[in-house]
Amino acid sequence: MNENEPVTVPVWSDDPRHPDRALVAEVVAAVLVAALARPVLVAAWRWTLPNLRRIDGPWIDRVRWLAIDGVFATGVFVLGATIGSFLNVVVHRLPLGRSPLSGRSHCPHCGHQIRPSDNIPVIGWLRLGGRCRDCQAPISPRYPIVEAVCGGLLLLLWECEWASGGANLPGGLLLPSSGLDWLILQPRSDLAGCVVFHGAVLLVLVVWALVAADGGRLPPRHLAAVIGAAVAATTVWPWLHPVPLLPGAMPGPPWLSRGLAVALVGLAVGGVVGSAAGRSIGPSWGPAACLALWGAACGWQAVAGTTLVMAGLLAADRLAVRSTPWLPLPAPWLLLASATIHLVAWRWIHGLLFGAVQAAEVALTWC
After folding, report:
1. Separation of alpha carbons 159 and 183, rounded Å
2. pLDDT for position 112
3. CA nearest neighbour of 165 among 154, 175, 155
4. Distance between terminal CA atoms of the chain?
5. Residue 151 has pLDDT above 50, yes or no
6. How large is the average pLDDT for residues 192-212?
7. What is the pLDDT of residue 206?
8. Cα angle: 161, vertex 166, 171; to 5 degrees
9. The whole model's pTM is what?
């Protein structure tokens, strides 16, 4: 290599068995699944939660609310894609010890700064045809993919948790109505806090998954600071934990029994399970850190449910690789997908998992 050539960090593996088209195909499939998720989930909510109010009235009222919902959803996707554009910078600079806020983005090949019109999330890459405007060097498709994934994650969280009135959350946070009528007229700060908190955790998992997929490592102080912030947030606002540590009332003030205790136990369980999983599915720090953060944010029951989802995805992925060798699911993305699925279907996974445990306890009592 010429010593004058700029040194760049590889964003995807150079292994020919893992070409970019595999990742693009997986993202397209995920977007299609997310697009079909809302009508399926709405039907499930109406069937399992009959008290959830419908949008009744003349058809013009329903069309109006759907149009307003579409405007808000578009704004949420744009916000997520913009955050994803910034996270691309974070993923590149953070493992190198550089501040993501220092200096504007530039082409790593020719050094020219990226124009604002070319830096529009997703659209900028498509307009340029995946090449730098100045030197025509190829731009990795990872950048628009990450932007689209972040936009899709926030949009999915918006639809399944915010616009539904908390229909995906266990523990009784569900509101008696759904849609944007209550959002505008009767906003709830506790549900809004849960949505913001869960969105922030998912975006952190995106960053950690990308760094782990690149084979990099994050500074331990960064991991400790993020996990510590999650523990502190749930201690100050214990209602961020929709599920208590154990069934029934726990002694002590809410900040301790519902906040700090749930976070610390979830942190410990997530770290242990993640360390064990890291020996088989990815870098040891990646699964351990991700599941530790997930446990601190959502509790040890969420770690159990996410592990169950991850086992199912891992089995499906192994079957897919046998039939389509170029379509593997990288381990960090497996964790992110499992956490997202668990969050969307949290109420049902929790009921399925711990309902079976309670049924087994009753059966053992009768034996």
Report:
1. 12
2. 75
3. 175
4. 72
5. yes
6. 91
7. 92
8. 130
9. 0.79
